[in-house]
């Protein structure tokens, strides 16, 4: 049985059940039951239409479960309603499911968990392992999330931006435990991009592909390797080519957004055969675009680094001076620019300070090593 | 979406408002206190925010390497150690503010006369994973 195929069908099947009137939690249980049956039946008797098979099986499971409960009248209503499939397409059903799982009434962690469970078809155990929490905790998080969206009507248009934020969060969590969240985020974004024509969905997909392409070079035995020192021969050129193609098609639509601009920056890095050949002037221009789209101080911090490369460290420090010193990674950027400017003592001091403020262990170790390098 | 360690100290924390040692409470007050802590942990399990919680014995020992082929050296316990950890809870919350709110709730566990202890808890963020996208 093709697990990838089955998982790619899951959201559409779930979406169809919910549109037919099943409440979300019951629909999800029914789809899981149908998948279990598929595992048993398909190897012996492969279906001609896997999705049709799953919809039929899941709907039957749902009706069985409903019958088992007391909601007899409700079931009869639903049976009556069944033949009416409505005008919605499968792509719409999948899309509605994404909207539902990223509904604004959910907290980010709930939206992430529900998306991975209902759209991604991951098990609760896998999601718990990926986020390093007990399985029981994750089960509760998911079940509360289902309750929260229980009353949300399925036919209301959702906001693509909320879905993209959830997928971005999943991707950025990276790789921990048995589940490759970055790969899963790419799979889900690809699926979404297939169902909706939206330049920012394409932008996010391109951004993910371009970053994922560098994964093999980003760490060395657990040590963080900065972009300039990465072994570019390890970059995945197939992913880069795909990312660039997806991005160009999106940019051609002339509806620029945050993710497209971020992807454009990633593409310029990917395009440089060596770090010294990076087109920093263009990167600064893209950061200017990005700053217009989001008033994020993090963007302006990254812009200061790019200015430092394009116009020299003094210009970078000048751009940095306009920003708030309490920003995360401010002292790390300051350290880097001071070293480039030849002031090793100030740089070393700032690297120590930056290490103390790092929000993850890999970054702290990297910054500590930078300080040690300058002090020796 | 970040994890926080809530540390409870036997010693070393600033004095709480309701600062009466447990051995001077009534048995019912002790029961109520423990019940409060257990209920708190159970509640966090249902909200999907609980990661781990453990209590520690009062006495520990210092231990260190003493060279190839030699047994570890132990020392202590040192009665004068200023800071003594009583236990911890790890929570996983959407925001820092939520973590503070939960810590404050835990600190309100009842003590003498059934009144909140207002115990000082130490909150420490756990390192997260390095983000994939940085530039």
Automatic annotation (TrEMBL), chain A:
- The question of whether Transcription regulation is a record keyword is answered with yes
Tell me which UniProt keywords the record has, alphabetically: Sigma factor, Transcription, Transcription regulation
Ranges for domain RNA polymerase sigma factor 70 region 4 type come to 98-148
Task: Kindly provide the name given to this protein in its UniProt entry.
Answer: RNA polymerase sigma factor
**Keyword hit for Cell inner membrane:** no
List, for all copies, the residue spans of the domain called RNA polymerase sigma-70 region.
Answer: 5-70
Which family is annotated? Belongs to the sigma-70 factor family. ECF subfamily.
Q: Which residues form the DUF6596 domain?
A: 161-250
Q: Name one Pfam family in it.
A: DUF6596
Q: Which InterPro entries match?
A: DUF6596, RNA_pol_sigma-70_dom, RNA_pol_sigma70_r2, RNA_pol_sigma70_r4_t2, RNA_pol_sigma_r2, RNA_pol_sigma_r3/r4-like, WH-like_DNA-bd_sf
Q: Which organism is it from?
A: Lentzea pudingi
UniProtKB/TrEMBL annotation, chain B:
Q: Which family does it belong to?
A: Belongs to the YciI family.
The record ties this protein, via Pfam families, to: YCII
Q: Would you tell me the protein name for this molecule?
A: YCII-related domain-containing protein
Q: Which InterPro entries match?
A: Dimeric_a/b-barrel, YCII
Q: Please report the stretch or stretches of sequence annotated as the YCII-related domain.
A: 24-107
Q: Which organism is it from?
A: Lentzea pudingi
Reading the lineage from the top rank, the first entry is: Bacteria
């Amino acid at each position: 049985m093709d697990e990838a195929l089955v998982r790619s069908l899951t959201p559409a099947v779930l979406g169809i059940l919910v549109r037919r009137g099943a409440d979300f939690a019951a629909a999800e249980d029914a789809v899981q039951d149908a998948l279990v049956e598929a595992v048993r039946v398909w190897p012996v008797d492969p279906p001609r239409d896997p999705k049709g098979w799953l919809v039929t099986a899941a709907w039957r499971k749902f009706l069985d479960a409903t019958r088992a409960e007391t909601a007899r009248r409700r079931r009869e209503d639903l049976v009556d309603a069944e033949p009416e499939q409505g005008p919605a397409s499968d792509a719409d059903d999948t899309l509605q499911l994404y909207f539902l799982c990223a509904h604004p009434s959910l907290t980010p962690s709930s939206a992430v968990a529900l998306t991975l469970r209902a759209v991604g078809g991951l098990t609760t155990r896998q999601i718990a392992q990926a986020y390093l929490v007990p399985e029981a905790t994750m089960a509760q998080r998911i079940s509360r999330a289902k309750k929260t969206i229980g009353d949300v009507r399925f036919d209301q248009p959702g906001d693509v931006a909320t879905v993209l934020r959830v997928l971005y969060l999943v991707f950025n969590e990276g790789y921990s435990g048995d589940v490759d969240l970055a790969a899963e985020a790419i799979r889900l974004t690809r699926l979404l991009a297939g169902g909706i024509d939206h330049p920012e969905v394409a932008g996010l997909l391109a951004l993910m592909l371009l970053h994922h392409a560098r994964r093999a070079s980003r760490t060395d035995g657990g040590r963080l390797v900065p972009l300039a020192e990465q072994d570019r021969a390890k970059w995945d050129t197939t992913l880069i080519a795909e990312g660039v193609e997806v991005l160009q098609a999106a940019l051609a639509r002339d509806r620029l957004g945050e993710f497209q601009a971020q992807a454009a920056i990633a593409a310029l890095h990917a395009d440089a055969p060596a770090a010294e050949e990076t087109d920093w002037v263009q990167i600064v221009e893209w950061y200017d675009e990005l700053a217009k789209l989001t008033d994020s101080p993090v963007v302006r911090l990254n812009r200061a680094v790019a200015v430092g490369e394009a116009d020299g460290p003094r210009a970078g420090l000048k751009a940095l001076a306009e920003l708030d010193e309490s920003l995360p990674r401010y002292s790390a950027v300051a350290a880097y620019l001071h070293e480039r400017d030849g002031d090793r003592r100030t740089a070393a001091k700032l690297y120590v300070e930056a290490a103390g403020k790092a929000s993850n262990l890999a970054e702290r170790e990297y910054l500590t090593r930078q300080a040690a390098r300058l002090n020796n | 979406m970040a994890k926080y360690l809530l540390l409870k100290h036997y010693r070393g924390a600033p004095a709480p408002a309701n600062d009466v040692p447990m051995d001077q409470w009534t048995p019912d007050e002790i029961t109520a206190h423990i019940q409060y802590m257990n209920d708190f942990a159970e509640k966090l399990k249902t909200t999907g925010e609980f990661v781990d919680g453990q209590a520690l014995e009062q006495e520990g020992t210092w231990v260190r390497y003493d060279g190839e082929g030699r047994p570890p050296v132990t020392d202590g316990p040192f009665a004068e150690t200023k800071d003594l950890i009583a236990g911890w809870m790890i929570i996983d919350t959407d925001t820092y503010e939520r973590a503070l709110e939960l810590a404050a709730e835990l600190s309100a566990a009842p003590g003498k006369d059934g009144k909140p202890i207002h115990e000082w808890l130490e909150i420490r963020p756990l390192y997260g994973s390095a983000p994939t996208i940085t530039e």
